[in-house]
Amino acid sequence: MSTIVVEVMPKAELLDPQGKAVVGALSRLGHTAINDVRVGKRFEITVDGEVTDAVLDDVRTIATEILSNQVIEDVVGIHVADGVDA
Amino acid sequence: MKIGVVTFPGSLDDRDAARAVRLAGAEPVMLWHADHSLGDAQAIILPGGFSYGDYLRAGAIASHAPIMAEIVQAAERGMPVLGICNGFQMLTEAHLLPGGLIRNANGTFIRRDQALRVTNNDTAWTHLFERDEEIVIPLKNGEGGFIASDEELDRLEGEGRVVFRYEGVNPNGSLRDIAGVTNARGNVVGLMPHPEHAVEAGFGPDTTAAMRSGTDGLRFFAGAIEAMQAV
Questions:
Q1: What does pLDDT average to in each consecutive run of 10 residues of chain A (86 residues)?
Q2: EC class of this enzyme (chain A) (predicted)?
């Protein structure tokens, strides 16, 4: 079994209301050095056997077409969980 | 005249939409997300709610339901399709409508009677309104911030495809106050506020005439019925 990690973030130029709420809370708690937080998503996808090129191609398609909405989000990373960049 | 109302796991306003259809003078046809056919429906409503608990993104999982493939095909043939709230989110996820919906700018769920400006009265669902008419229908959402790239927003405005703008208050941070949009053909309309909750005096928004007497939503459904009769 292998795990592939897909990371999705709200587009940098768009407001991230969730991140804004978190940074507001941190500031109220006295963490004044923090000036921005953005909240994204991490998907851990488990597949049987080795991560082949075909599997990775499939995950790339899933990442752009289903796991993210390209109008509002970007896929910022796809890598196999052992740390090798895909 | 038959108008289909699709129920997804987590839909909330499907029966309200069916009731609105009935009050407007058509027969509602209840459809299920896993259906592979639209039956004899001549128009489709995707109702509000929280399909799949808004997991992944609001409307994202529902947009891949079996019935959505049928709806995409029917919409391309010109069938009137209305997406309300979660239904609007599904239509953007299915790429039948442009843009996307994100969490409200102030981070809270909002419920209010909302004034809207009708900026396109040339769609299947809005032709009974006057151009620039102000209407009031309920709004209730957590993820109603309409966003798109500047180029896309310019294009939508240039093509007259912004159907509704928030009037007075922009409740959720929607870019350029956009509350609803249509496709190029004008048969597919999506909006965040809820016309199906303003169709019967006594149960609608307040008006200057009387409490809860607002029925501005009724003309959405009556308009679609007229549009179907004209085909």
A1: 95 88 95 94 94 95 97 96 62
A2: ligase
